[in-house]
Amino acid sequence: MCEREPYFHLEFVNDILLRRYSLETSSSYDGVPFPREWKAKVVVWSDLSVDDVDRLNESLSVDHVKQVLADIFHLDSWQEDPRQAIVMDLYYYTLQFAQDNNFNREKTSTFFSIIKNIHSACVETPFGNLEHTFRYFKDLILCHSVNRPPFSIELFNAEEIQKISEYTINTYFRHFKMYKYAFTPVVRLDLAITYQGVPVSPRPSVGDELTTEGTEVSPEDEQTAEHKPKEGEETPADDVNDQTDNEEESGARKELRAMIQTYLAEEIKKVKATVEQQLKATEDSVNRKLEDDNQARSGRRDSLKKKK
Questions:
Q1: How many CB atoms lie within 10 A of CB 160?
Q2: For labelling alongside 302, which of 60, 139, 212, 234 has CA 20 to 30 A away?
């Protein structure tokens, strides 16, 4: 894995940016794309051709299969590059699942493209898009299980759809954030705060007291310089002015510091509450999907037992 910062705040950042910049007016923020809906289509032979599937089926070892995959998808550095190694493992175990379930060439190519496409949807944006990706996955399954050409074809039966759904949920979607952590950039939220009623401190001006070498000094300037206090010395008037300025500045600073501390304390509480709500909502969503899937499987098993 690449060295990255924790990925716990992206849902919160996602919510803020999507509220500030509507998806209707912009599809990205500062070059980072927002989550979007993907349109499913028939993907037979889109990534693996007939010859590619035959080459993979004829491979006799794990190393040979990975070498063929590296040649097809240009993963030449998968042994050194951590990201290419992750992609290689994803592709290899996808093909292994297809072989374990005796998929033919068309089904193998289609299932491989489904996994590859949902991975592309996942890593397209660093913002949270679990719901978008899962909907895209269901649309892809539906697109290859109903005979409605040219929009969809009947390639997988009900039993194969159940196996594909269980495998994808228990492998890819269970590690969804790990894939996003490894393949997407870090998103930081920078806040700029302005206070109403507080004057902006002016920038200090650079004095023109320095003279360049070779400049002639007139006698009047010499007399004026003699009466000026030396560097480091202060006149009584300067002392009085400095004391007054320090008192006013210290009072203004104390008041400003108190205002900032109060405001930041309230904002930190709001941010913590929002982050906790986002994390809890995400966990509840994933848990509900897993529970629904488990209930559906148990219901189908009970129905099969009754039929027997």
A1: 18
A2: 139
For residue 132, which amino acid is it?
H
The pair of structure tokens assigned to 126 is 């660093």
Buried b or exposed e, range 80-104, using 16+ CB within 10 angstroms:
eeeebbbbbebbeebbebbeeeebe
Pick the closest to residue 273 from 5, 18, 4, 15 (CA basis).
15
Q: Read off the pLDDT of residues 236-271 as tens digits, 9 standing for 90 and up.
A: 555 555 555 566 667 777 888 888 888 888 888 888
Q: Which residues contact 267 (CB under 8 A, 6 or more apart)?
A: none
pLDDT at site 223 = 54
Give residue 209's identity as a one-letter amino acid code. E
> Which spans in 156-235 are helix H?
158-171, 176-183, 219-227
pTM, two decimals, is 0.58
Token look-up 């008041």 returns 255
**Amino acid letter, 259:** M
Alpha helices in the chain (DSSP H): 10-20, 50-58, 62-73, 82-100, 105-122, 130-143, 158-171, 176-183, 219-227, 236-307
DSSP, residue by residue, 139-177: HHHHHTEEEETTTEEE-S-HHHHHHHHHHHHHHTGGGHH
**Burial track 248-279 (b if 16+ CB lie within 10 A, e otherwise):** eeeeeeeeeeeeeeeeeeeeeeeeeeebeebe
